[in-house]
Specification:
- The structure is a homodimer of 491-residue chains.
- Chain A is mostly helical and 491 residues long.
- The longest helix of chain A is centred in the first third of the chain and has 28 residues, at 3-30.
- In chain A, 42% of the residues are buried.
- Chain A has 2 domains: 3-138, no CATH class; 139-491, Neurolysin, domain 3.
- Chain A is globular.
- In chain A, strands 1-3-2 form a 3-stranded mixed sheet, sandwiched between helices.
- Helix content of chain A is 65%, strand content 3%.
- The interface between A and B is large, with 36 and 36 residues.
Chain lengths: 491, 491
């Protein structure tokens, strides 16, 4: 075996282990009996330990060093493989094992406390653990290293190459235009015409499956199930699993299906030659979110889409939609209602929710904000940016799991994804000027084909910034997203 | 850590890995998208390799040796732990790695060939691979070692301590009495009164769940799902999964639920202190089958049981059972119909199916029968023992997966289980003379409690023979089973 074959054998084993762990997590969310959580956690710890020891194996480091010496003699994909394995190896080895264990123990401790704090509206009980999580994340950044700011090291975990400075630039360009648009869009709201429990779950499941199949989700290489929160995960190149939740009171499940379906389309169309390597999956959280948001919002909340799908919706739910006109439906699914909860936010408000979290977590990591002052800072910004009064920490600073999970630097990728979705869609529209007709005729294969060619098939071969540059000809530019929003909400 | 703690840490890691692999197999049977089979097999091979290297680690052998030196100073459970870990270690290390790989490759090759051969009634295409599998199993026996016959080594894999000689003794006691009883019972048959697709699957699932809950299956520590063939598997002490299949034409699912439920009750009631050790599961295939058969047949096909359950059945399926009397139902579910297919056989015929397989596989392993002569030998015995003509190898010698899977020595455990079930039930009846009333009142907790105390809680602490001796006061004795059959079918 040559050096690349050796590296690939190591990568394949690690890839298998990570897919097995993905199965364990999927099963935990979808199938696990209630009293099996503790033993599953133990099994997961055993698996993580085995994978971790393989990830930090000095012999792996030596293989990577040797391969790096071959450098330019390698193919583009092999160069990318070596680069990515170096990145993973460094990230794994820079953190001392006792730190990893301590951080994992701290998040295990923090999660149930956060759950209880949110339930009881008791931020004070969670604050000391949050302070510890901030301190640990700050130490994590020091271990990982950074050029300008500690926060950069955390961002880089989720979005390679992204920095706080770059996020600031993008978010500064969004803040005021979003506030202005929200203020103006107040009149666009429209309430659903039904009340009470109107949607049979079986019918919703059938419709969600139909939506997924329509955009090209391959049910021979994946499945859709129910869970408490929708998610998408890959158990291998041929096994992409999405989940959804079904409320008898709303059609939100359709947009969840399109969102998770967007993630899944990306994964299902990664080149088969990249399977069992770290290149065989979507490249970053931001680029991934650009695809979920593209299918959910840019396509899935457009008039063209519903010109095609309203007949299907009427057929599935005649009592609710039999008489509904397209215009009414569009006002309903694009209503702008600044509110308290990020995951329920409309397209305009959503990014202000993210901006607030970014500003606050950056201040926490930089030591400019104490955790005890966090609720007040949160509530002030919600009043200022979104014009809403926060009645309780449960619906405020305690609403998201991320910080309890020790994930700082994750939130910005949601908005980075929205920005990238509009920029990528702009590039698509240039090659398909009749894009509204393409959607209106349900020719999603054409759109998926272009996205596959441009993005999906490459997996993680190109770093996110480089990929965006290749696809759109420029680096991340918030103008496309703002223009998209203006065209949609300001007419 | 003392030596036992070291051993327990090793055992815990291996137990976790095996439970993760059990999850992978459960998911494969119940959830896996059709095109993901190949990559799942690869992931499974990676996991098996990791587990195997840990199982044959010389350092583990050294730990076991050291613990053995402590001998009598250890507690009963710790002595059992060391004994069991020795057994597992020897079984793993006696087989050279290249042999294990070659056997695994051969069975992977043989399985699809067997599937095609059964489909096309083409034994000749499977015969060469079967010959190789026999030869490999013979070699396996040589590696494992035996006192009297090679077949003993294979039997011991599934039923510790069982020998061909002992099986012969038991089966010789069964052969003629079974043939006589079957001939006499011919008049007891009764056809179901319905035709066509009568049973709604959703209603069957609800009823199967109800049956499981009734006998004490804990749905907080397990679940029931659908698969092509019913099975029961443990993903941990708190996660027991059973599956069932539902035909719209029969109530067979009820007996499958009780059968798999019996396996699951055993596992769910193993002492929690044995978790994450090789003692934390049922001790052998035979003892396990004694529990599935006890709940399925001895309890589940008794008049007392249906005195309790017929009202539930009438309620669930009024069209089919609303008018049916207990006597009619009993004749129907206990009809004796010697046939071709083992898994469809009645209580009397079933063990003759097993006897035939035992006699033939013993002759194969001993080199007294060539694989090419197998179909003729099979068909002759079916005519002789069961009085049925075998119209095709698909419904004859090709019907079971076991040999294609390289499993020789497995079949006898089915009948060993039946024998043990009657012997254990006899012991129960001695402490509960009102056992018919206990069942008739649905007091299954009383029966489960006794079985837990006597058998379940001990997991694998006592070897199967010793366990049976402790519970019933004697070693395996076919008389109890024959007496049970006579009482049931010859009145």
């Amino acid at each position: 075996m040559n050096i690349i074959d050796h590296l690939r054998a190591r990568a394949a084993e690690l890839s298998d282990l990570h897919h097995v762990m993905a199965l364990m997590q999927w099963d935990q969310e979808v199938m696990l009996p209630v009293r099996a959580a503790a033993e599953r956690a133990q099994q997961f710890a055993t698996m993580s330990g085995i994978a971790h020891r393989k990830e930090v194996d000095p012999a792996l480091g030596e293989l990577i060093r040797t391969a790096e010496a071959d450098g330019d003699a390698l193919s583009v994909v092999d160069q990318a493989l070596v680069r990515r394995m170096r990145r993973d190896y460094d990230q794994s080895t820079k953190l001392p094992e006792e730190f990893v264990v301590a951080l994992s123990a701290l998040t295990s401790q923090a999660l149930p406390v956060w759950v209880a704090a949110r339930k009881n509206n008791d931020f004070a009980s969670f604050a000391p653990l949050l302070a510890k999580l901030v301190a640990m994340s700050r130490r994590q950044a020091d271990y990982l290293g950074y050029e300008k700011e500690p926060y950069d090291a955390l961002l880089d975990l989720y979005e390679e190459g992204l920095t706080a400075g770059r996020v600031r630039e993008c978010f500064d360009a969004l803040r005021d235009p979003l506030r202005t648009m929200i203020a103006k869009a107040g009149g666009g709201r429209d309430e659903p015409p039904w009340e009470g429990e109107m949607f049979a779950v079986e019918e919703q499941i059938r419709f969600a499956d139909r939506m997924l199949a329509m955009i090209g989700f391959d049910f021979d290489r994946g499945r859709q199930d129910r869970s408490a929160h929708p998610f998408s995960t890959g158990l291998g190149g041929c096994d992409q699993r999405v989940t959804n939740r079904y409320s008898p009171r709303s059609i939100e499940f359709i947009f969840s299906a399109l969102h998770e379906g967007g993630h899944a389309l990306y994964e299902q169309n990664v080149g088969a030659d990249l399977a069992r390597t770290p290149l065989g999956a979507g490249v970053s959280l931001g680029i991934h979110e650009s695809q979920s948001r593209l299918w959910e919002n840019i396509i899935g909340r457009s008039a063209s889409f519903w010109r095609h799908c309203l007949p299907l919706l009427r057929e599935a739910f005649p009592a609710q939609f039999g008489e509904m006109e397209l215009g009414r439906l569009m006002r309903m699914i694009n209503a702008v209602r600044p509110g308290l909860i990020r995951v329920e936010a409309d397209e305009l408000s959503y990014n202000l929710h993210v901006l607030i979290r970014f500003e606050l977590e950056l201040a926490l990591i930089n030591g400019e904000l104490a955790t005890t002052d966090l609720p007040a800072a949160w509530n002030e910004r919600y009043r200022d940016y979104l014009g809403v009064a926060v009645p309780s920490d449960s619906d405020g600073v305690l609403q998201d799991i991320h910080w309890a999970h020790g994930s700082f630097g994750y939130f910005p990728t949601y908005t980075i994804g929205n920005l990238a979705s509009a920029q990528i869609w702009h590039a698509y529209c240039a090659v398909d000027p009749e894009h509204e007709a393409t959607i209106g005729q349900g020719d999603f294969g054409r759109i998926r084909g272009w996205l596959t060619e441009q993005i999906y098939r490459h997996g993680s071969v190109y770093p996110p910034e480089e990929l965006l540059l290749r696809v759109t000809g420029e680096r991340l530019n918030p103008d496309y997203f703002l223009r998209y929003l203006k065209n949609k909400f300001m007419v």
